[in-house]
Amino acid sequence: MRRAVAGSLAAALLGCCAAAPAASAQEKRPYPWDKRAASATKFARARAGRVDWAVITPDGRVRGSGIHARHRSASVVKAMLLVAYLNHGDVPRRRLRSSEKAFLRPMIVRSDNGAATHTHNIVGNAALRTLSRRVRMKDFATSRSWGSTQISPYDQTRFFYRLDAFVPRRHRGYARALLSNIIGSQRWGLPPAVPKGWRIYFKGGWLPPRVVNQAGLLERGNRHIAIAVFTDGDPSFAYGQKSIQGVAQRLLLRLNDFES
Description:
Blueprint: H1 2-25, H2 33-45, E1 50-56, E2 62-65, E3 71-72, H3 78-86, H4 98-109, H5 113-135, E4 150-151, H6 153-161, H7 163-166, H8 172-179, E5 199-207, E6 211-220, E7 223-232, H9 237-251
Antiparallel strand pairs: 1-2, 1-7, 3-4, 5-6, 6-7
Helix pairs in contact: 2-9, 3-5, 4-5
C-alpha cells in the first residue's frame, strides 16, 4: 500500500514538473522593439524622399530615425491648436460653447483649414510656444502661417504620449473624442497598422504631393505608444501615405503576441 501511495505521489510530482515548461512556453515574451525599429529604419531609408520617424514605447523610451529633423507641420499642428485653445483664457474653467465646437470639431475631424486659421487667430503663436515649452519640445518653431510650423518626430511623440497631461481635465474627453473620430477618408497611414484591441488618437497633415505627415497615440489599457512619421519629397500623396503605414506596420508587427 505504501509503495502504491509513494508511486502515485511520484507520478503526480513528475506530472507537475512536466506541465511547467508548457505553461511557461505560453507566457508572452518582451516585445522586440529594437528589432522592429531596425526594420522600420531600413524601410524608411529605402523610400523616395525623406522619411523621419519616432516612437515612444510603453516604457517611455524613444527610438527612431531622424527624430530631431524639422518638417513643415501642415495640418499636424492642428492637434496643438486644439490643446492651446482648450487652455486659452477661461476655457479650462467652463463648458465649451456650441459656437466654439463649431470650429474646433471641423478643424480636427475634417481638417478644415478655415477653422484652423480662426483658432490660430485667437490663440496666436504665443500659445503654441507656451504649449511646446510645457511638452519640453526641442525642435519646435512657429511661423506666420500655421501650416509652416516646424515640428519634429521627437517633439510630436512627446506631445501625443502624454496628451492628457496637457489638456484641462474638464475637456479631456472632448479632445479624445475629436482625435479618435477623424473622417474615414483621412484614416490612412497609422490607423490601418493599429493592432486589434488598440485605440488611436491622431492627426495627419499634407501638402500634396511632397509633404505627408502623421502623429498619434495608441492605447490599450494602461499601455501607451506614440508614433510620428513625417515625409518630404514624396512622388505622390498616396506614396507618402504608404511610407507612413509601412513604418507603423513594421513597428507594430505582431504586437499583441508579446508583452509590449
